[in-house]
Amino acid sequence: MLQTERVPKKATNLSLSVATLDKARELGMNLSQTVDALLAEEVKRRYWEKWRDENQEAFAAYNERVAKHGLPLAKYRTFGKSLGDGRRDPV
Question: How far apart are CA 45 and CA 24, in angstroms?
Answer without folding.
Answer: 24
